[in-house]
């Protein structure tokens, strides 16, 4: 176990050589306790359980969920999507996606992926190149009847394509019929 002072606001130490995840942090006596994560069989990142992908566990700031059935359904759908995606499970990930022209967009990188087959290929490449979550936590989340807005800071592993966006970002996840229709990552290219 590694204790981290709450004041550092770091979800894991960068020099310890062991991968840690926010899901492994618990607060005890105003300190954070980290536990090593379990490697996944597919790409060796980690494995997550259903309770470890809840928005309440990832959001450090305000979490707004509209008081409607559609918003509750979208929240559950995103958590199911995170569970599948962060565990590198392509079939389960695609089962959370709407079949009618889903998309993945990262405008700053020129990524515009549209269609079920293209999104499947995108996720397979994502699992291989930057598995697991790319944010240590979420700063603010707003859940509505049609979309979820996630604000935070991208902190991908260095040398990955998404590393060019390291820093503040907003991810907009659109929904249709209780399924993820598409994700758009809005962020600026990091200055080098």
Write the topology of this structure.
Blueprint: E1 2-5, E2 26-28, E3 31-34, H1 55-58, E4 63-65, H2 69-86, H3 90-95, E5 103-106, E6 111-114, H4 116-129, E7 135-143, E8 147-154, E9 167-176, E10 179-187
Parallel strand pairs: 4-7, 5-10
Antiparallel strand pairs: 1-3, 2-3, 5-6, 7-8, 8-9, 9-10
Record keyword descriptors for this entry.
192 residues, three-stranded antiparallel β-sheet, 22% helix, 4 helices, 10 strands, disordered N terminus
Number of strands: 10
- Indicate the structural class: alpha+beta
Average pLDDT number: 77
Largest sheet strand order: 4-7-8-9-10-5-6
Strand content: 25-35%
Oligomer: single chain
**What characteristic shape results from the CA principal axes?**
globular
Give the distance, in angstroms, between the N- and C-terminal Cα atoms: 34 Å
Give a short summary of the structure.
This protein is of the alpha+beta class. It contains 4 helices and 10 strands, in the order βββαβααββαββββ.
Outline the structure in words:
- The protein is an alpha+beta fold.
- The chain is about 20% helix and about 30% strand.
- It contains four helices and ten strands, in the order E-E-E-H-E-H-H-E-E-H-E-E-E-E.
- It has helices at about 55-60, 70-85, 90-95, 115-130, and strands spanning about 1-5, 25-30, 30-35, 65, 105, 110-115, 135-145, 145-155, 165-175, 180-185.
- The strands form two sheets. The protein has a seven-stranded mixed β-sheet.
- The longest helix has 18 residues, at about 70-85.
- The radius of gyration is 16 Å and the shape is globular.
- Residues about 1-45 have low confidence and may be disordered.
């Amino acid at each position: 176990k590694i204790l981290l002072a709450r004041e550092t606001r770091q979800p894991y130490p960068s020099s310890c050589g062991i991968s840690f995840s926010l899901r492994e942090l618990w607060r005890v006596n105003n300190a954070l306790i980290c536990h090593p994560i379990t490697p996944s069989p597919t790409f060796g990142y980690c494995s997550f359980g259903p309770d470890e992908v809840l928005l309440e566990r990832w959001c450090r700031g305000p979490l707004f969920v509209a008081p409607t059935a559609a918003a509750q359904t979208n929240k559950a759908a995103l958590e199911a999507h995170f569970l599948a995606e962060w565990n590198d499970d392509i079939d389960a990930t695609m089962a959370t996606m709407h079949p009618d022209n889903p998309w993945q967009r990262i405008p700053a990188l020129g990524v515009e992926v549209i269609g079920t087959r293209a999104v499947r290929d995108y996720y397979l490449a994502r699992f291989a190149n930057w598995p697991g979550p790319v944010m240590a936590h979420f700063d603010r989340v707003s859940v509505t009847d049609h979309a979820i807005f996630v604000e935070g800071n991208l902190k991908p592993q260095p040398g990955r394509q998404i590393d060019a966006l390291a820093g503040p970002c907003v991810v907009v996840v659109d929904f249709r019929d209780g399924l993820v229709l598409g994700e758009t990552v809005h962020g600026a290219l990091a200055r080098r």
